[in-house]
């Protein structure tokens, strides 16, 4: 295989083979976690917690920078890219300038490289080589992606390369980007350039974008979801935007974890893209989330923007740097993770939303058409988020396919594939509100994790489907009449509000937002899905 990098031919067999970087200084290839932690400490990149986790700060960027993400506009791919706000065009000439400047910059730095896989299915996996100036970011990538076996490293040739220069400042005038921060993807060159942001989530999500690009033509649906498996091998998927509970709810002692955040669904079932988890840890409780707690108190884990005292004791309630504090650890430290990262055909598809308006029911059964409506809508409402510029007030967000920032192709591509898969495998679909109940944010309170887990247990083990349902008037959702271990008044959102008139007004307002948002999809969906919107409004 050849690589379109000017310097690649001089670099055969070196860790920088295929990256276009001619190193002047030390290159640390494929170091394991202890060595990366040692380098990170030597270089003053972070400190150790009392349990040995590596605590780092990411500086000004404590979340993703979606406005600084670009896709290079190339002849071979331009017709298939969903151009717009999510995928902003970068001219190829500009990308060449940015790439050249970053390659020259990296040449003068001490470098860390890691060769890793994305995709647990060997037939679909992508070989990724990351070149970074940060020992901790190399450790992040190592924790997050799938670590090849030692014998697989010998002949490793990357499919995709990430040039990661978090301290390099891009220049809008020269590089054609918006700010010093840039996440630029070239699908033709199979190259990702990241500058001006230390937040490691960019590394993870740029590879997710690549998977979202590569898999649909192979008949595999890439999904922003977590996945776990029940006692009889039945798989559940949990879709949802950031902070809705994918990581929290898929970590379950009774259901082995397939993966935390990104999966493919194809003819052979589902497979994890990753080899690690990236959990939000603000206010993490040892009681409610024991697996994530333990994973965050161990050597080798990376803690982003977590606060600790002089003795390294964590204060997970302290959001002084950001509410988006994160813990990144290999998935195998979750006690019941599925080692292969693969499962069969899903029996249940759960769509999570954290509705800060407190309107949507804690759980509802969805028809296939309703599932498509909610998948294309991609609703949540958050109070504080992982992206910059969010205020403390609740804010409705519609992010199609529960992951629009990561979709390089048009939403209908993914929507049609999901509709087809749900129909073919007869999966049951559920909408679960992990957000507010008893009132909007400020009046009501967040749904208890215990209740949400009980609702999911009943849905996934088949109990709910056997019971009776009642139609909720605003969205036309089917709400169960009774669920074991959950008080009846929790099930009906209107009942949980003290002020019924306020509920009705808030529900009408939310429905209007759904309708306005869905207008852009109306021409791309079939009549049944269109009817969901109309029925809801009737
Ligand atoms: P991301 O895509 O950013 O990784 P995510 O969907 O994985 O987001 P989680 O990391 O699971 O989101 O975050 C859910 C957060 O909400 C956690 O901090 C969790 O403690 C909190 N939470 C509070 N109540 C609930 C609930 N009822 N169900 C799920 N999570 C809840
Ligand atoms: Mn998550």
From TrEMBL:
Q: What is its EC number?
A: 4.1.1.49
Question: Record's InterPro entries?
Answer: PEP_carboxykinase_ATP (IPR001272), PEP_carboxykinase_C (IPR013035), PEP_carboxykinase_N (IPR008210), PEPCK_ATP_CS (IPR015994)
Which GO biological process categories is it annotated with?
Answer: gluconeogenesis
Entry binding sites for substrate: 64, 199, 205, 326
This molecule's function is given as: Involved in the gluconeogenesis. Catalyzes the conversion of oxaloacetate (OAA) to phosphoenolpyruvate (PEP) through direct phosphoryl transfer between the nucleoside triphosphate and OAA.
Family membership, please give it: Belongs to the phosphoenolpyruvate carboxykinase (ATP) family.
Protein's name in the database: Phosphoenolpyruvate carboxykinase (ATP)
């Amino acid at each position: 295989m050849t690589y379109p990098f000017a310097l690649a031919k001089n670099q055969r067999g070196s860790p920088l083979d295929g990256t276009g970087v001619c190193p002047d200084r030390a290159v640390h290839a494929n170091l394991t976690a202890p060595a990366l932690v040692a380098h990170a400490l030597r270089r003053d990149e972070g400190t150790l917690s009392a349990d040995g986790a590596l605590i780092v700060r990411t500086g000004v960027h404590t979340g993703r920078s979606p406005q600084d993400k670009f896709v290079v506009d190339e002849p071979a791919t331009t017709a298939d890219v969903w151009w717009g706000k999510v995928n902003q065009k970068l001219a190829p000439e500009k990308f060449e300038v940015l790439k050249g400047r970053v390659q020259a910059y990296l040449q003068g730095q001490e470098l860390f490289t890691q060769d890793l896989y994305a995709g647990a299915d060997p037939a679909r996996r992508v070989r990724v080589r990351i070149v970074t100036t940060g020992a901790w970011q190399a450790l992040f990538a190592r924790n997050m992606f799938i670590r090849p076996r030692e014998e697989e490293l010998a002949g490793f040739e990357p499919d995709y390369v990430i040039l990661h220069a978090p301290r390099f400042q891009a220049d809008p005038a020269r590089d054609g980007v918006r700010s010093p921060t840039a996440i630029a993807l070239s699908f033709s060159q199979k190259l990702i350039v990241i500058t001006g942001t230390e937040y490691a989530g960019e590394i993870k999500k740029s590879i997710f974008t690549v998977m979202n690009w590569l898999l649909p033509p192979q008949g595999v649906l890439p999904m922003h979801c977590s996945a776990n498996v029940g006692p009889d091998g039945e798989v559940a998927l949990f879709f949802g935007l950031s902070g809705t509970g994918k990581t929290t709810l898929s970590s379950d002692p009774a259901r082995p974890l397939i993966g935390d955040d990104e999966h493919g669904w194809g003819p052979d079932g589902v497979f994890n893209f990753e080899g690690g988890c990236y959990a939000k840890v603000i206010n993490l409780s040892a009681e409610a989330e024991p697996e994530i707690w333990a994973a965050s108190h161990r050597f080798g884990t990376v803690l982003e923007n977590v606060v600790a005292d002089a003795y390294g004791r964590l204060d997970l309630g302290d959001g002084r740097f950001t509410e988006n504090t994160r813990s990144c650890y290999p998935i195998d430290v979750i006690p019941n993770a599925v080692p292969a990262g693969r499962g069969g055909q899903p029996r249940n598809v759960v769509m999570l939303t954290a509705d800060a308006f407190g309107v949507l029911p804690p759980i509802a059964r969805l028809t296939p058409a309703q599932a498509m409506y909610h998948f294309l809508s991609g609703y949540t409402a958050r109070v504080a988020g992982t992206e910059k510029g969010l205020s403390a007030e609740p804010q409705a967000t519609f992010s199609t396919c529960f992951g629009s920032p990561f979709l390089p192709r048009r939403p209908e591509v993914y929507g049609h594939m999901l509709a087809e898969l749900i129909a073919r495998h007869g999966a049951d679909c559920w909408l679960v509100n992990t957000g507010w109940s008893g009132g909007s944010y400020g009046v009501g309170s967040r749904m208890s994790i215990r209740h949400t887990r009980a609702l999911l247990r009943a849905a996934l083990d088949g109990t709910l489907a056997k019971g009776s349902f009642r139609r909720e008037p605003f969205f036309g959702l089917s709400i169960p009449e009774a669920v074991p271990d959950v008080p009846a008044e929790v099930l009906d959102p209107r009942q949980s509000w003290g002020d019924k008139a306020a509920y009705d007004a808030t529900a009408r307002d939310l429905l209007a937002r759904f309708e306005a948002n869905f207008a852009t999809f109306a021409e791309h969906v079939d009549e049944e899905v269109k009817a969901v919107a109309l029925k809801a409004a009737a």
